[in-house]
Every structure is written in C-alpha cells, then in structure tokens.
Write a structure and sequence with these properties.
mainly alpha
C-alpha cells in the first residue's frame, strides 16, 4: 500500500492544493458576503434574499466539497511514506492550523444558518475582523509546510 501511495503522490498533492485553494477562496469570500449582508440588507428585501442564496450555494457547493477533498487528500499525504517527519515541529503546527481552519469553517456554517433564519446578531465590523482569522491560519499552515521547522 505504501508504494502505491508513493506512486500517486504527485496527483494526490495536486488534488490537495486545488481543493485547498477552492476551500480558502470560499473561506475568504463568505465573511465578506456576511459584511454586506449585515450592513446593507434589510430583512426580506431583494438583497437579503440574494445574499442568502449566494451564501448557501458558496458553502454547500464549493466550500463543503472542497474541504472534504482537502482533508481526504491531506490525510492520504500524511500516510504516504516519507512525506511527514513526525520528529519535526511543522506537522503539529500545520495540524493545529488545519483543525483551526476547519473550526472556523464550521463557525461560518453556523453564521450562515443564522442569516438564513434572520437571527444574525453580529455587525459588519465584527465579520471584517473575523475575516482576518483565516489569513493568520493560512500563513501558519503555509510557513509550516514550506519552511518545515
């Protein structure tokens, strides 16, 4: 099994990178939609309904599948012999970053559902601040993998 994983490594890595890019695009865009939703939409108006649809489709059809593919491909890479040096620090910092990113993604899902039920309590400013979280996590993840400290 290990040799098979080594043979398909470049394809799995490519799939992982594509999925992460797609997932991250959504993670950066959804809070921006929330900013517009919180600041400009009025309950029941055309913009409110349009943003609800956009937020739902972004999360359901782009972010959710991309996160699943990123996780599956990432775990496949973890089990590929020679890819991860568990005696180094970087696998643990990356793991922390990825788990934190997943928690943030789930928080976004909860917030989207609140918008859908007209129960949002956060301001556009608060969503702008939350939009910095994935940036920090992305830097941690990328530096961990590239520098391998």
């Amino acid at each position: 099994m290990g040799y098979f994983l080594v043979d398909i490594y470049p394809y799995v890595l490519s799939l992982h990178i594509i999925a992460v890019i797609s997932w991250m695009a959504g993670i950066f865009y959804l809070p921006r939609l929330f900013v517009y939703h919180a600041e400009r939409a009025k309950k029941g108006d055309q913009l409110d309904e349009t943003l609800k649809i956009m937020e739902y489709k972004l999360q359901r059809y782009i972010m959710a599948p991309a996160s699943i593919v990123a996780w599956v491909a990432g775990l496949t890479l973890v089990f590929t012999p020679g890819v991860v040096d568990w005696s180094a620090i970087w696998p643990y910092t990356k793991m922390f970053g990825v788990i934190s990113m997943t928690v943030f993604d789930h928080w976004l899902m909860i917030m989207r559902k609140k918008f859908g039920r007209d129960e949002n309590k956060l301001s556009g400013r608060q969503y702008r601040m939350m939009n910095e979280v994935p940036t920090v996590l992305m830097v941690l993840i990328v530096v961990s993998v590239v520098v391998k400290f």
